Amino acid sequence: MESINLLPVELQPQKADRRTLLMRWASVGILLLLGIAYVIFVVQLFWWQWEVQQMEAEMDTLRPQVEQVELLERQIAVDQNKTTTLEQLHQTRLSWAEVFREIKNSTPDGVWLMTVAVNPETTKNVVEIEGQTTIFEQVGVLALRLKELPYFTDTVIVEAKDQVVNGQVVTRFLIRCSVKPDPEVLMDSKGQEKKLSGANGEGAQ
C-alpha cells in the first residue's frame, strides 16, 4: 500500500545523496583520526615526562660520583702543575758537584784550596774560598777566573795575609763569590752547608 506525504515540499525530509554521505563519513573519519592522534600525543608526552624523571633520578644518583671524578681531575691537574714546576726547578737547579769541579779547574798552579764553603753562617747566597799560595799574583788570577764562571754574580778578595811557613812566605787568602739567586740549591737535603776541603790547584805540589 502506497503512502502519500501531504506535508509541504519544504517540510518533507530530503533523501541524502551519495556525495553528502561521503562528506559526512569523511568528516567523521577526520575527527576520529584527530582524536587518535591527540591520544597518541598525550601518551607520548607522559612517556617523555617519565623518561625525564628517570634521567633526573639517575643523575641524582650519579652526581656524587661525578663530583668525585671532577675532584680527582682537579687534583691531577694540580699534581701535574707541581710536577712541571719541579721539573723546571730541577732543570735550573745548580749542581754543586759541577760548581766545585769548576772551582778546582779554575785554580791556577801554585795555589792550594783549603776550604770551599757554601752558605757560611754570617752570610747567605755566597761561596767562601780559603786557600794558600806562594805566588801572590795567583790570587788575582783565581779571582778573575772565578768571576768568569756562570754561577757567580760577583767575586771579591776579602783578605790576603802573608805568613812565614818553614822559612817561606805563604799568602793565606779568602775569596767570597756571590751565587746567582737560587735558594733551593744553597743547602743540601739535611739543611747543612756544603763544604769542599783540601782541593788543590792543578800542578800544585
Tell me what the structure shows.
This is Type IV pilus assembly protein PilN. Keywords: Membrane, Transmembrane, Transmembrane helix. This protein is of the alpha+beta class and about 200 residues long. Among the domains are: about 45 residues; about 90 residues, Gyrase A, domain 2 (2-Layer Sandwich), CATH 3.30.1360.100. It has a 5-stranded antiparallel sheet with strand order 3-4-2-1-5, covered by helices on one side.
N-end to C-end Cα span: 161 Å
CATH-defined fold name of the domain at 96-182: Gyrase A, domain 2
Secondary structure class reads alpha+beta
User: What's the helix-strand series?
Assistant: HHEEHEEE
Number of helices: 3
Going by CATH, the homologous superfamily of the domain at 96-182 would be General secretion pathway protein M, EpsM
| Largest sheet geometry | 5 strands, antiparallel
Task: Give the topology.
Blueprint: H1 18-92, H2 96-106, E1 111-118, E2 126-133, H3 137-148, E3 152-165, E4 168-179, E5 195-197
Antiparallel strand pairs: 1-2, 1-5, 2-4, 3-4
